[in-house]
Design brief:
249 residues, Jelly Rolls, 8-stranded antiparallel beta sheet, 4 helices, 16% helix, globular, AL/BT2_dom
Length: 249
């Protein structure tokens, strides 16, 4: 009887683990509860529909879909148009954005928002604030410099960098922007909490390189962007993004 009970328990545990693993593998989906809360997918796990490269009509050649993730795979010698930052077709004002990312060793990237797409600006970061992505282990100098580490509001507010996982592990980002109140979460931990557009914010920006770009972080609505233009990392540089979803606030 004892042995039979052990077998029963083992089968039950195995079934639980299998079910749990199956649930964990359901990436790029939203639950019925999330849908009722207003969440929508920005990436369906199969195509780059809803995205294009900045100032281009379609995604550059270095962006593709692989194993249920958006993959950037590039060589520094590739034409810039091939790895130009990816941006959403849609624009967003007040939102809650969640996504997961991982990278090849020593790579560097970021997630930008309120990006204003216009030939007036060559790059997304001329208008869009950035939640920085950098491999803690070896991205130099970014992973060793305050305000340039993973989770930072790039060049403006430094986060507690210990919450980032080293390559090739996945990391979870969340950006909440609600009428200028911006919060960053890295792997579930709040790392940035600030208010845009007020006098304190303007003074902060004025102390950085962004003071040379008068329209930086001034737009109240814009595109979400995944940065592909950084050239740090072991070549070929690879970045993966998945489980990208947003909820309008």
């Amino acid at each position: 009887m004892f042995q039979k009970n052990l077998v029963t328990i083992a089968v039950a545990v195995f079934g639980f683990v299998v079910c749990d693993m199956a649930h964990a593998q359901q990436h790029n989906t939203i639950t019925a509860e999330e849908k009722a809360q207003g969440w929508q997918l920005l990436f369906d796990g199969q195509s780059l529909g809803g995205w294009h490269s900045y100032l281009e009509k379609a995604p550059g050649k270095d962006w593709k879909v692989s194993d249920g993730a958006i993959l950037l795979e590039k060589q520094p010698s590739d034409p810039e148009a091939d790895f130009q930052d990816l941006v959403t077709d849609a624009e967003f004002a007040n939102f809650d954005l969640k996504l997961s990312w991982k990278m090849s060793p020593c790579a560097d990237s970021g997630v930008m928002f309120y990006v204003h797409e216009s030939p007036k600006y060559r790059y997304t970061f001329e208008t869009g604030p950035e939640m920085q992505i950098a491999d803690l282990a070896c991205t130099k100098p970014d992973s060793r410099v305050l305000y340039e580490r993973s989770g930072d509001l790039f060049d403006l507010i430094s986060s507690d960098v210990e919450w980032v996982n080293e390559s090739p592990q996945w990391n979870d980002f969340e950006i909440i922007a609600d009428h200028g109140h911006v919060q960053f979460f890295q792997n579930g931990h709040k790392v940035v909490d600030t208010q845009l557009w007020n006098d304190d914010w303007k003074r902060l920006v004025a102390r950085t390189k962004f003071k040379a770009w008068p329209d930086f972080a001034t737009f109240h609505e814009g595109h979400v962007s995944l940065q592909g233009t950084e050239d740090k990392g072991v070549t070929p540089i690879r970045l993966w993004f998945r489980d990208i979803k947003i909820r309008k606030l």
